[in-house]
UniProtKB/TrEMBL annotation:
GO terms for molecular function: acyltransferase activity. It comes from Paenibacillus mendelii. Keywords: Acyltransferase, Metal-binding, Transferase, Zinc. Belongs to the PduL family. It catalyses: propanoyl-CoA + phosphate = propanoyl phosphate + CoA. Its cofactor is Zn(2+). Its EC number is 2.3.1.222. This is Phosphate propanoyltransferase.
């Protein structure tokens, strides 16, 4: 067993500290060393935890799945891009996202519900076959709409909303959802974790407020990059931020499969 001290970490600064900082089996961080990493925003992977029953230290699962926190956003159909921004308009990529080929666009619109308005909601590209609005439950209270928890693309029995753009207004009859948390994986990632597309797993966080998220859907595609996708309400509850790491704590090939 190796004890890693703050002095040891300071000595590594000139070489660059690994991010995340990975612990080998049996390694332990002193409290000062843990604070040193935390103050620099460096997550700890494979950190030991102390049993609340006094049974000594045990190694929790390696925290190796990066967190992607998703703020409210909109996927527009090509028709709705035209209606909101003008004939022949093409979305302007602003920032690449973690999933290949997807980007945050420069363009934003306003959402208007029965009780309120939210301005400057980001459009994500490229355009899709059907417009989808993804908000948090907290956003729903502000807007006066109460969308169900759904995986992307499942619009059955979902509410609609009004969208205001610089060139027009549209009202969608359905497509507003609270996105169900899920993990994107490539086929290689899925093989490594022993899961398949449609599996449901539990995910363990390892921050200041450790939480277990259950019924997390696994989504596998050759274009996907490893990413635990959750919304701002969920991230805030668990004290998670973009770039933190989590681990799969239960589930896999024998877990219940997501419909579709």
């Amino acid at each position: 067993m190796a004890f890693i001290t703050e002095s040891h970490l300071r000595a590594l600064l000139s070489q660059g500290l690994p991010n995340p900082f990975r612990l080998s089996d049996g390694d332990r961080l002193t409290p000062a060393a843990r604070d040193f990493l935390h103050d620099r925003g460096i997550p700890i992977a494979g950190a030991p935890v102390v049993s609340s029953t006094g049974g000594g230290d045990k190694l929790k699962p390696k925290a190796e799945i990066p967190v992607g926190v998703s703020n409210r956003h909109i996927h527009l159909s090509e028709e709705h891009v035209r209606l909101l921004f003008g004939q022949g308009y093409v979305l302007t990529p602003l920032k690449e996202l973690s999933q290949r080929g997807q980007y945050a666009a420069k363009e934003t619109v306003s959402l208007v519900g029965p009780k309120g308005l939210i301005k400057d909601v980001r459009i994500l590209g490229p355009s899709r076959g059907e417009t989808q609005v993804e908000i948090s439950r907290t956003d729903g209270f502000q807007l006066g709409v109460h969308p169900p928890l759904r995986l992307s693309g499942d619009h059955t029995d979902t509410p609609g909303i009004a969208l205001y753009g610089p060139k027009g207004l549209i009202v969608i009859e359905r497509g507003v959802i609270v996105a169900k948390a899920h993990i994107h994986m490539s086929p290689g990632d899925a093989a490594r974790f022993g899961v398949a597309h449609g599996d449901r797993v539990s995910v363990q966080t390892h921050g200041e407020r450790p939480l277990t998220f259950g019924d997390i859907a696994i989504r596998v595609h050759a274009d996907f990059s490893l990413d635990f996708h959750l919304d701002t309400d969920e991230a805030n509850a668990a004290f998670l931020k973009q770039g933190d790491y989590v681990s799969i704590s239960a589930g896999g090939s024998n877990a219940a499969r997501a419909k579709g």
